[in-house]
Structures are given as C-alpha cells and as structure tokens.
Amino acid sequence: MSRVHYLEGDYEQLVINETIDGLFSSYRIDRNSLPKGFFLYEIRWDDSLSSLAEISPSVVVNHAGSFITKSPLEFDANNSIRITYTNFIEFCQFGEWAYEKLAVLDCNSGNVAVISPDRRLQTTEEIEIFLSGHCGYHLSEINWMVMKGDVLFLNENDF
C-alpha cells in the first residue's frame, strides 16, 4: 500500500494508555512529509483484527493506521508499546491539533476571533507577521494571545 502526504490524511485525536496523545489515521502517512517537531509511528491490530494492539516505528502485518505525536515515544525491548487503553476523542484536522490557537480581539468592534494557524508560530514576531500578512489585521487595532483548548463566550445573561 502506498503512503500519502500528511495533509491528505483523515485524523481522529486518540489517547493511548491514558498518557500518549496523538492523531490517528487509517492511512499510511509518509514520514518524510511531516513538519519538523512531529513524530510518526504505526499501530498494529491484534491477530483477530478487533482491537488496537501495539505502537511501533513501522508495521507491515495487521496495519491499523498511522499515529502522529508531538514528542518521541520510548519503546520496550521489542521496539513497541503494548496498547491497553484507547480513547478516541474527536475527528480533527492536523493543524487544529498540532498548533496552538490564537485569540484575537478587534479593539474597534469588540469581536473576538479564534484562529488556528496552519504552521507552528514560535515567536511574537512570527505571530504578528502571520496576523498582519496572512489574516490582514492592523496590529495597532488588535490584542492577541496564544491559547490552548476552546474559548467559551459569556454574556451578562450567563451570570
């Protein structure tokens, strides 16, 4: 089976063994297509093809899918991690999971926008170039912050 570029995959956020967070795709993702700072592993089905059995650097037989993480995994002596627990969280796009979101307050209108960049922005300068160049904001008219998770908007009726 051929491998696909990571942007062609369909993803579901998956937590394995309660501590390993990543993105699962049933596609065979091309390791060389991933951006720097992400790690690709593969997951194997058990012999009955009914449960996810283990994570390893690569799988040939009983391939269930690819698994992308933000940090490297440590394997046992068999070069694998046995899967004892799985929790599929939600379907999402790679960029939604991979990169922190930006909350942008438009000081003129009071509107707040939540933006999911398509790449990792590491410095204030990179973020401001992205907001002004890619999103068209005038930096003197906004306040912004890096955020994780979701935003909950409240109004006076919520109190």
UniProtKB/TrEMBL annotation:
Q: Where is the Large polyvalent protein associated domain?
A: 20-93
Check the record and name the Pfam families matching this protein: LPD28
For this protein, the record's InterPro entries field holds:
LPD28 (IPR040809)
Its recorded name reads Large polyvalent protein associated domain-containing protein
